[in-house]
Amino acid sequence: MAFQVRRVVTGHDADGKAIAMIDDVVNGEPRRPGADAALIWTSLGWPNNNDGSEDEGKREGVATTLPGGTVFRLLALEPGNAPRMHRTDSLDYSVVLQGEIDMELDDGVIVHCKQGDVIVQRGTVHNWLNRGTETCVLAFVLMDAKPVEIGGTRLDAVG
Description:
mainly beta, globular, 13 strands, Jelly Rolls, three-stranded antiparallel sheet
């Protein structure tokens, strides 16, 4: 799968004037069969720091989430993508940019989402299944969160 996305990042010049600091193409990288992900940007700490000129989209060692930070990534899922049931210790905002996708929850419930739909994932076990005929592209903003606790029992990240 040749998944690419143009990335434009603003910043400031030495006089404080707004500039397009980065204007490039990010190539998606394979995550599992039928799934490519493109890391767009990351941040550490709160509040976020907009000083500097480092390319935080090139941060090394970023997994699904970033402890103490945020991750912005795009995910392209081909029809028949390999399943990955998982839970992350994060609050995720997701938008279906292209195509359709089924979100499977750990009890087998399927929620069908189409282009333009928005999903707020709050540390639940889930899986993304593309049962359609075209690639589905989702945008994710993943923010570090405390592990979920139900009745005093911690639900650990899985997958």
